[in-house]
């Protein structure tokens, strides 16, 4: 072999790879049912077939992303035990409850999704069909809710005592209601809705950019930008609460992200930049008082620095870039979607410009990058702990052989799945353009 | 009753559910591919698509439910099985992933491709084969403890006749279960051509299923005499299972009561599966792990059982609705909307 076999490194890489891939489809899976429901509801209320067709087409594409979400989710679910058997043995005693409830949420979602997809033309009353989507959206949101609780527990474990290596006084409910839970769940949900809205807006913006001027795409773009704006604002607000949570319960994660080395008052926020040989920050953008505000809502408050954390327990410093990218994208998306809304209301010409539509098209990919950056920040920022304060990553990993081979096997799988899902989605919509479908529906109703 | 027993019974029930509905699915994929080869695709394609489309995702959840529940009720099983099964289960995951996603891709997106249909059919047989390794490993003799860590003995596993008899049983029973179900389904759909063909398949695979099961019992005797004797103590359950096997085959031969034939098959497998499970008691992994030393704490067990009952109260009506709309709805089965 060309590398030294270390199961811990390979386990980490494989877990990170699977999750980074899964989260793309999972985020879409959580957010899109709500968007479909909104479109279908407006369509029914306004009796506008454009919105109904939006819902139909999104639902069709959704099936593809759900399929990849489900199979990669199954992979990560099993990999947790395969790659982190020591961790799961410990965690199973305390945090198995939300993991278990998550499968019920999925179950619920899967059943109604099957029914919804196959009953478009079965109900005289469209409202009844829309009702079927509610359990899908609820199931998706709850699965995100439960799995995020597990992740929150890894950051701020509670609900048990460790006495001489034995777990005692276990309280599964207290474990679920850990301090990281509220901000984490709220942030994950609001970003999932935000990202899904921007991804759908991107598709419409792309069509307009390509010169298609159909009102269908304009309606889609306007609706999704509006929803995206609302959830961006929510995301920024919840993100701010997340910062305050970190300052109180996981200060070393915040300090690593901010390159805040010494505890001090009136702390400035440093954006980007780099570290020179002596560990000094160079070329960064310094916003005075901003870190004190982010951490405690008070420009003069004291913010704990990395110096308070023992050296071997400090997270890697590159998380700074993950955090900055996420925040920059969040600010940008809030601005651009707000601006678009305003410009439409004012009737500004810029919204018809091709270049502007291209800028709008970028919002979907950007939101997805922010999701990845956010998770990388949250996960690398927890290092070297797998269960903060209780178990190191290196003690949680498997001792089995061939983890390296499994890494290649799964990398191959994700390449195949990723490529195939993109090809299938493109084909599906190219083969069946909006104009054609609208005409077909009119024909079926005998309007021709 | 002990919480341990309640826990393992519920999980075993879900595993059984998975085995039945996944077998139908896997076998259907294989018959699709086979009908492509024998140019009988026009006969089978419609009936198989009708059944599979709305339920494929639900099938997968049964599996997820089983392994998540396993980690919840028996955290130590995550440690033992997780460490040992990295390679076989990873291969299983990759096959499940390819097969599951490609089903969706093909049904909703791309055109039928022959290559895909074959891969799909073959993957459906390889998945049960790779997952059946879990049962083989649980029998003992394939895991060593080295430096306090469980290690899988790949060579012994690969060259053991027991491994291969279990693999064979998993494959032939998939085909048998699937063909019998689809015969009944085609009967409800009044699709004579499909019914006749599938009935032939069902009969053809019934013999090999019985044979493979018998073979395993013989292998057990050579492999692990203690486990063999446990099985023999429960001979009456297996004998009863055999009676239901005969009933199913007889009904198929008589070309009558196809739905009853299928339910009799379910009872046959349930008896054998639970008989096997009881004979395994108290071991989760012979001889290292029993359900008692692998069990979670009482607080978690109670919470899981409460969650399970609440969740089930939610699921049963929904599953019932799904079945009403697609499985037992004559109009849908026959091709209406
Ligand atoms: C569209 C995606 C997106 C956007 C625009 C933002 N975030 Fe975020 N952020 C996430 C997507 C995300 C995430 C993927 O959902 C994370 C990863 C783990 C988590 O809990 O949520 C996250 C984590 C995360 C954390 C770490 C929480 C923890 O580890 O417990 C903090 C402090 C923030 N975010 C703060 C912000 C702020 C102040 C933003 C202001 C604009 C912001 N985020 C925008
Ligand atoms: C879905 C979005 C997520 C992404 C993109 C993600 C990303 C990552 C990455 C990149 C790593 C490697 C960190 C390192 O090597 O330093 C990692 C590790 C890990 N994550 Fe996450 N994570 C996500 C959510 C979760 C959740 C919800 C859980 C728990 C239920 C979880 C459990 C783990 C575990 C057990 C490890 C291995 C231990 C470690 O390296 O810290 N992750 N993840
Ligand atoms: C370690 C962390 C994770 C685990 C163990 C996990 C587990 C799973 C499993 C087992 C499935 C398939 C379920 C089925 O068969 O129906 C799945 C799919 C899914 N997961 Fe994950 N997941 C993780 C991270 C996440 C995160 C962080 C989110 C959301 C923010 C998420 C959202 C979803 C969604 C939405 C789907 C299915 C797609 C759908 O049906 O809509 N997962 N996940």
Describe this structure in words.
Chain B: This is Cytochrome D ubiquinol oxidase subunit II. Chain B: It is a multi-pass membrane protein. Chain B: It is found in: Cell membrane. Chain B: Pfam families: Cyt_bd_oxida_II. The complex is a heterodimer of chains A (448) and B (337). In chain A, 50% of the residues are buried. Chain A has helices at 7-46, 49-83, 85-117, 126-131, 133-155, 172-176, 181-209, 215-249, 251-258, 290-296, 319-346, 354-361, 363-380, 393-396, 403-430, 434-444, and strands at residues 161-163, 166-168, 264-265, 269-271, 274-275, 281-282, 285-287, 302-303, 385-387, 391-392. Chain A has 448 residues and is mainly alpha-helical. Helix content of chain A is 71%, strand content 6%. Chain B has one domain (3-333). A two-stranded antiparallel sheet of chain B has the order 1-2. A two-stranded antiparallel sheet of chain B has the order 3-4. The longest helix of chain B has 35 residues, at 3-37. The radius of gyration of chain B is 20 Å and the shape is globular. The termini of chain B are far apart. Chains A and B meet through α2, α3 and α15 of A and α3, α4, α5, β2 and α13 of B. CIS-heme D hydroxychlorin gamma-spirolactone (HDD) binds next to α7, α8, α11 and α13 of chain A.
């Amino acid at each position: 072999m060309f590398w030294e076999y270390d199961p811990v490194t390979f386990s980490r890489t494989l877990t990170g790879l699977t999750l980074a891939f899964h989260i793309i489809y999972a985020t879409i899976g959580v957010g899109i049912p709500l968007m479909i429901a909104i479109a279908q509801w407006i369509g029914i209320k306004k009796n506008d077939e454009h919105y109904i067709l939006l819902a139909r087409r999104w639902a069709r594409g959704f099936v593809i992303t759900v399929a990849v979400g489900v199979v990669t989710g199954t992979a990560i679910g099993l990999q947790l035990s395969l790659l982190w058997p020591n961790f799961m043995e410990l965690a199973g005693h305390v945090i198995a409850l939300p993991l278990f409830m998550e499968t019920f949420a999925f179950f619920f979602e899967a059943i109604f999704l099957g029914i919804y997809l196959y009953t478009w033309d079965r109900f005289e009353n469209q409202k009844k069909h829309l009702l079927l989507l509610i359990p899908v959206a609820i199931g998706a949101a709850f699965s995100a809710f439960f799995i995020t609780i597990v992740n929150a527990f890894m950051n701020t474990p509670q609900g048990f005592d460790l006495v001489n290596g034995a777990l005692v006084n276990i309280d599964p409910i207290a474990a679920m209601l850990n301090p990281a839970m509220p901000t984490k769940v709220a942030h994950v949900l609001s970003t999932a809705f935000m990202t899904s809205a921007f991804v759908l807006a991107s598709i419409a913006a792309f069509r307009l950019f390509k010169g298609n001027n159909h009102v269908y795409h304009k309606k889609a773009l306007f609706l999704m930008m509006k929803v995206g704006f609302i959830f961006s604002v929510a995301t920024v607000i919840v993100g701010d609460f997340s910062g305050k949570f970190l300052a109180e319960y996981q200060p070393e994660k915040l300090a690593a992200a901010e390159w805040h080395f010494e505890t001090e008052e009136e702390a400035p926020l440093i954006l980007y930049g780099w570290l020179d040989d002596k560990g000094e920050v160079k070329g960064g953008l310094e916003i005075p008082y901003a870190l004190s505000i982010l951490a405690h809502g008070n420009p003069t408050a004291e913010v704990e620095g990395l110096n308070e954390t023992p050296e071997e327990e400090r997270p890697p410093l590159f998380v700074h870039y993950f955090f900055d990218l996420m925040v920059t994208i969040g600010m940008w998306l809030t601005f651009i979607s707000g601006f678009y809304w305003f410009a439409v209301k004012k009737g500004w010409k810029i919204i018809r410009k091709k270049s502007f539509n291209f800028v709008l098209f970028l919002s979907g990919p950007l939101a997805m990058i922010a999701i990845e950056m956010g998770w990388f920040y949250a996960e690398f920022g927890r290092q070297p702990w797998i269960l903060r304060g209780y178990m190191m990553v290196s003690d949680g990993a498997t001792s089995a052989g061939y983890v390296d081979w499994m890494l290649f096997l799964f990398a191959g799988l994700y390449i195949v799945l990723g490529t195939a899902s993109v090809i299938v989605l493109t084909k599906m919509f190219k083969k069946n353009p909006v104009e054609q479908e609208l005409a077909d529906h009119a024909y079926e109703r005998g309007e021709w | 009753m002990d919480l341990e027993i309640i826990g393992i019974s519920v999980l075993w029930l879900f595993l059984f559910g998975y085995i039945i509905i996944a077998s139908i699915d896997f076998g259907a994929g294989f018959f699709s591919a086979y009908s492509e080869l024998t140019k009988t695709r026009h006969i089978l394609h419609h009936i198989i698509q009708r059944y599979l489309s709305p339920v494929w995702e639900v099938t997968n959840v049964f599996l997820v439910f089983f392994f998540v529940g396993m980690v919840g009720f028996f955290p130590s099983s995550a440690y033992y099985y997780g460490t040992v099964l990295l390679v076989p289960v990873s291969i299983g995951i990759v096959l499940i992933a390819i097969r599951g996603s490609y089903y969706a891709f093909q049904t909703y997106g791309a055109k039928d491709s022959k290559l895909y249909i074959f891969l799909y059919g073959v993957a459906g047989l390889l998945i049960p084969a790779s997952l059946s390794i879990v049962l083989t490993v649980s029998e003992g003799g394939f895991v060593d403890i080295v430096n306090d860590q469980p290690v899988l003995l790949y060579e012994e596993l690969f060259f053991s006749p027991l491994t291969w008899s279990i693999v064979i049983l998993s494959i032939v029973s998939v085909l048998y279960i699937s063909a019998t179900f689809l015969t009944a389904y085609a009967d409800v759909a009044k699709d004579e051509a499909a019914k006749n063909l599938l009935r032939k398949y069902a009969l053809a695979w019934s013999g090999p299923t019985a044979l493979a099961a018998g073979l395993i019992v013989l292998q057990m005797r050579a492999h692990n005499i203690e486990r063999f004797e446990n099985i023999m103590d429960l001979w009456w359950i297996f004998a009863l299972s055999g009676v239901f096997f005969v009933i199913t085959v007889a009904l198929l031969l008589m070309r009558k009561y196809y739905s009853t034939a299928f339910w009799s098959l379910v009872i046959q497998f349930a008896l054998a599966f639970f008989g096997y499970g009881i004979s395994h008691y108290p071991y989760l992994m012979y001889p290292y792990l029993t359900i008692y030393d692998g069990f979670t704490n009482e607080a978690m067990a109670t919470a899981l059982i409460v969650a399970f009952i609440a969740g089930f109260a939610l699921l049963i009506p929904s599953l019932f609705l799904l079945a009403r709309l697609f499985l037992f709805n004559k109009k849908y089965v026959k091709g209406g909307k």
